[in-house]
Amino acid sequence: MAVNLKEKNAEELLTVDGVQVFVGQAGVKKTGHDDLTLIVLNRSNTVGAVFTQNRFCAAPVYIAKEHLANENGIRALVINTGNANAGTGMQGREDVLAVCRAAAEQVGCTPEQVLPFSTGVILEPLPAQKITAALPDVKPVHWDRAARAIMTTDTVPKAASREGRVGNSHTVRATGIAKGSGMICPNMATMLGFIVCDAKVSQPVLQMLTQEVADSSFNAITVDGDTSTNDSFVIVATGKNGQNEIDNIADPRYDQLKALLAGLALELAQAIVRDGEGATKFITIRVENAAGRAEARQVAYAVAHSPLVKTAFFASDPNLGRLLAAIGYAGLENFDTDKVRLWLDDVLVAENGGRADGYTEEQGQAVMNRAEITVRIDLQRGRECATVYTCDLSHEYVSINADYRS
């Protein structure tokens, strides 16, 4: 069950000039629900994208990377669920290209102007003929339908919008959708994320912005520590809001736009954690006063990935020595454990190498009973910090993944 996560309705999601959204049923999913999404873009857009770090990346990831280098720009995104088209060899790539050709014919562009995305079961051939046959029948929809169409094991569709001032006289509209529930780990996981905005941004600058936004959102979440083969995050800028182009990161509007889109991306990323497979708790892990940001993230992920920590949260068990153990095996050099201070929400749990004076089991239990908990770790080694978002590990997680293909 999702933790404090509600489905957005159509009225809560902004339309963005220069973008059309379509969904359909290709029959790739066994459920008979929408499983095909086509996002059509205006001619003057720019696109930034980041992809999975998994070396066994899926066929659509290979092709999308190649197509991003196309000098004529991108005109469409085509997304199927139910099949990842990963571990499918050269035939998988041929199947992706067939889908791109069909989408291009419908949109009126070249196949190289189509970015393909897939999510679902790995090591099974993509039923490309089903997808190409269904593309002519996709119907125009609003973003709420598209968010639902890209779901796999998700229980709640994930969509959000933002609107804000960028520069002195222009407003930027942005809407995003995402999917993901399991195989979620830093450096992208089984997640797809798409944000469209009407700002005008040069492609090199948008690519840098996309990487920075991903780093503070989708690369700051973990559900189970598994990194998927298909993860992709895309930002599209249609240039339709009438502003002059942002073509330099020194432009003050760059930071304004980044803040707007980073907030949107973080909401989507946190929604993935809140909908983590079988999740009953949403956990924020904040590491403070580290010697460097990489060190702070190293400690945060050691805690977030610990099965013992995650199961303690599921059980609402204040067995908080598990947190200290995870911090201890994070691998920091010259690490003085006596300097570490540990809080659960506002309760000081440990300091000076042991239990904090005044801490009681009842205080810890009161916090562990909550649905949303913040773990704060002060290393007292420097001034850098990092925040990671995760969830607990429940019996339901095992059931969902044991029954995934049945």
From TrEMBL:
GO biological process, one term: ornithine biosynthetic process
EC number of this enzyme: 2.3.1.35, 2.3.1.1
Residues under site feature: Involved in the stabilization of negative charge on the oxyanion by the formation of the oxyanion hole: T119, G120
Subcellular location: Cytoplasm
Catalytic activity: N(2)-acetyl-L-ornithine + L-glutamate = N-acetyl-L-glutamate + L-ornithine; L-glutamate + acetyl-CoA = N-acetyl-L-glutamate + CoA + H(+)
Pathway: Amino-acid biosynthesis; L-arginine biosynthesis; L-ornithine and N-acetyl-L-glutamate from L-glutamate and N(2)-acetyl-L-ornithine (cyclic): step 1/1; Amino-acid biosynthesis; L-arginine biosynthesis; N(2)-acetyl-L-ornithine from L-glutamate: step 1/4
Gene3D superfamilies assigned: ArgJ beta chain, C-terminal domain, L-amino peptidase D-ALA esterase/amidase
MF (Gene Ontology): L-glutamate N-acetyltransferase activity; L-glutamate N-acetyltransferase activity, acting on acetyl-L-ornithine as donor
Amino acids binding substrate: T152, K179, T190, E277, N401, S406
Cross-referenced CDD domains: OAT
GO-annotated cellular components: cytoplasm
Domain of life (superkingdom): Bacteria
Keywords carried by this UniProt record: Acyltransferase, Amino-acid biosynthesis, Arginine biosynthesis, Autocatalytic cleavage, Cytoplasm, Multifunctional enzyme, Transferase
Chief location category: cytoplasm
Annotated site residues (Cleavage) in this chain: A189, T190
InterPro entries in UniProt: Arg_biosynth_ArgJ (IPR002813), ArgJ-like_dom_sf (IPR016117), ArgJ_beta_C (IPR042195)
Active site: T190
Known role: Catalyzes two activities which are involved in the cyclic version of arginine biosynthesis: the synthesis of N-acetylglutamate from glutamate and acetyl-CoA as the acetyl donor, and of ornithine by transacetylation between N(2)-acetylornithine and glutamate.
Subunit annotation: Heterotetramer of two alpha and two beta chains.
Family of the protein in this entry: Belongs to the ArgJ family.
HAMAP family per record: ArgJ (MF_01106)
Name assigned to this protein: Arginine biosynthesis bifunctional protein ArgJ
Gene coding for it: argJ
